[in-house]
Amino acid sequence: MQPSEPYYRDDLALVHHRGFAFHADACAPDILSLLEPIRRRNGLVLEIGCGSGLLTARLVETGHRVVASDASPSMLHLARTVATGAEEIRTLTLPDDPVPAADAIVGVGHALNYLPDVGSVERALLALARALRPGGVLAIDLCDLDWGRTRQGESNRGWVGEDWALVTRFSTPSPDRYVREMTTFVPNEDGSWRRDDERHDNVLVDTARLPGLLATAGLECEVRLSFGSEAFPPGLRALIGQRPA
Ligand SMILES: C[S@@+](CC[C@H](N)C(=O)[O-])C[C@H]1O[C@@H](n2cnc3c(N)ncnc32)[C@H](O)[C@@H]1O
What is d(CA 210, CA 149) in angstroms, rounded to the nearest whole number? Predict the structure, then answer.
């Protein structure tokens, strides 16, 4: 299902930033290792689905030139304060916005699974592949069909922090769909709390098919269980590749 407005409005963007930094934090060291040759030659890194800029900040701190992008204005607003020093922080809504040429394309937090269907995911991947310069590196994560298989009948869950709370109802209406109905609470300036609700429809993909797809655009890719040494949750995969120099 295509949402009528971008996913991650103000309150969910804030909750993600305050309570769910752990995935970007865990992925950062391995992504930085994969990108070390790009940093050495001062290449340009394009980050897709940058969210609030958690990985972006790590890339910038390490000396990378970064263009960070996302579809959510609320996430981009946060990223502009979190990842100062990026060359650009801009809207890029996959699969159809033009993708700028880059020496590396990275993304964590499965942005492509937010697209409406597998065809859109494939279109987005081919657009990213075409934007990757010779010698360039691709490193993104995606939810495989296994993501849904391992979460059949998942119980509702709640999380709470000092200044945020999230309650999520999960469902897997079909083998290639993962749905979260999320209710957020964040404090107002006067100390009262406000509620918002978002439904996220994720499409799950057979990641084993993706190296073959990307080979048609000249990329050599593989699907791994993580970007390196960090442990991914069940069903999440790392798609890692390069365009030969
Ligand atoms: C789970 S969040 C991950 C954010 C960030 N990378 C992190 O790890 O904290 C997924 C991100 O994908 C973005 N996204 C969703 N649909 C997108 C689209 N069509 N194009 C680009 N980004 C999209 C969302 O706005 C959100 O910031």
Answer: 19
Question: Which residues are bridge partners to 197 per DSSP?
Answer: 183
Angle at 93 between CA 22 and CA 55, to 5 degrees: 25
State the distance from the centre of ligand 1 to the C-alpha of 38, rounded, in angstroms.
Answer: 23
Residue bearing the CA closest to ligand 1, atom 6:
50
Between helix 10-19 and helix 73-82 the angle, nearest 10°, is: 40
Collect the ranges in the chain with pLDDT lower than 50.
Answer: 1
- Phi, psi (deg, nearest 5) at residue 49: 55, 45
Atom of ligand 1 nearest to the CA of 111: 12
Pocket of ligand 1 (CB under 6 A): 6-8, 23-24, 48-51, 54-55, 70-72, 75, 93-94, 108-109, 111, 114-115
Count of other CB atoms within 10 angstroms of residue 59: 27
Nearest one of 143, 155, 118 to 235, comparing CA atoms: 143
Atom 5 of ligand 1, nearest CA residue: 51
**Per-domain residue ranges for the chain?**
10-144+205-242, 147-202
How many Å lie between the centroid of ligand 1 and the Cα of residue 119? 18
pLDDT score recorded for residue 3: 60
Q: Which CATH superfamily is domain 147-202 in?
A: S-adenosyl-L-methionine-dependent methyltransferases (2.20.25.110)
Q: ∠ CA 113-77-3 to the nearest 5 degrees?
A: 35
Architecture, CATH, for domain 10-144+205-242: 3-Layer(aba) Sandwich (3.40)
Residues making up the chain, counted from first to last = 245
